[in-house]
Write a structure and sequence with these properties.
Number of helices: 7
Largest sheet: 6 strands, parallel
Oligomer: single chain
Order of helices and strands: HEHEHEHEHHEHE
Number of strands: 6
Strand order of the largest sheet: 3-2-4-5-1-6
Structural class: alpha/beta
Distance between the termini: 32 Å
Radius of gyration: 18 Å
Strand content: 5-15%
Length: 204
């Protein structure tokens, strides 16, 4: 796709502008490193365009920290205080979803995932945000915590121009079929294979 030009122009009756403004459903999957990193990079571009950003991390532990969380919280404050970029919300399942005002529990991760998806569905219906990152969202789908057909229907029928990026290994075929953009991260070499632990500034 040289210089961002499509190889084929579809005969779909849409204008170039309409196609350019169509919302994207992206999936970053595969065994390689960089799925979430790439999603947060897209979110950074969206923030710079003034988009309303919402991140939902489907993680089990509140101890799991990512450097992007602190960076985006700072960017959110920059927007609130100076009007730069777009607003940012960051929600993490393992610490207890922010809107519940209660601490997370290690007892029922499935119930927490269902609650998180229900909130995302409500926000999609209300067109509350412009750009969503559903980080590690493939796992609740893989483990059967969520109904994949209902999830795909909600995502594909979302109103407006809301962009959604989903990360995680083993994305189900139904999700891949529904997505506009699918990237598979394939591991060729990783320092952990040589016994090296994760590093500050690289893994978190």
């Amino acid at each position: 796709m040289p210089q961002g030009q499509p190889l084929v122009v579809p005969n779909d009756g849409l204008t170039t502008k309409a196609r350019r403004n169509a919302p994207i459903l992206a999936v970053h999957t595969g065994p390689g490193k960089g799925k979430s990193t790439a999603a947060f990079g897209m979110a950074l571009r969206a923030w710079n365009q003034g988009f309303d950003i919402a991140v939902f991390q489907f993680v089990k532990s509140a101890k799991w920290k990512v450097g992007e969380e602190a960076a985006f919280q700072t960017l959110g404050r920059l927007h609130d205080e100076q009007g730069v970029g777009g607003p940012v919300q960051w929600h993490k399942m393992g610490s207890g979803w922010s809107w519940t005002r209660r601490q997370g529990s290690d007892e029922d991760h499935a119930a927490a995932a269902v609650e998180g998806w229900a909130e995302i569905s409500r926000r999609l219906a209300a067109e509350q945000h412009d750009f969503y990152v559903l980080d590690e969202f493939t796992y609740p789908l893989k483990w059967g915590w969520l109904d994949i057909d209902e999830v795909v229907t909600t995502l594909t029928e979302r109103p407006g121009t809301q962009h959604v990026v989903i990360t995680g290994r083993d994305a189900p075929p139904q999700l891949l079929d529904a997505a506009d953009l699918v990237t598979e991260m394939t591991k060729v070499k990783h320092p952990m294979d040589a016994g090296r632990k994760g590093q500050r500034g690289i893994e978190w």
